[in-house]
Task: inverse folding
């Protein structure tokens, strides 16, 4: 076997292994979730594209990585920061249990409450 033939066979093996890896990965839950959902973090609404897609992760809502229904009902796309926060909250819940209110109340603070009056005053001056 000459040197050129050896290079070609090694290249063919590498390419075949890469194609197999890609096919296996595409059948995984991450690739399925990326096809089902828009590339937006479900918490902070940060948008992703191909350049930063590696920072978008799949969170299992019930925290069971073996529960992967094909309809994606147990998946949520989260950026790495929100995903880390979600697991921190879950770990705290497991460790310490529920504390305080379990129902999240809507925000009551309105930062723009006096904006219209302030603008009207400014126009009048």
Result:
């Amino acid at each position: 076997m000459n040197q050129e033939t050896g290079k070609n066979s090694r290249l063919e093996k590498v390419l075949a292994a890469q194609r197999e890896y890609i096919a296996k990965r595409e059948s995984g839950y991450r690739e399925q979730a990326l096809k089902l959902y828009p590339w937006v973090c479900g918490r902070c609404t940060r948008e992703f594209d191909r350049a930063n897609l590696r920072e978008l992760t799949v969170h299992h809502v019930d925290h069971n990585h073996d529960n992967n229904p094909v309809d994606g009902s147990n998946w949520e796309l989260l950026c790495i920061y929100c995903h880390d926060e979600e697991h921190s909250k879950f770990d705290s819940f497991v460790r310490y249990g529920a504390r305080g209110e379990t129902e999240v109340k809507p925000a009551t603070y309105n930062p723009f409450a006096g904006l219209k009056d302030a603008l009207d005053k400014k126009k009048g001056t």
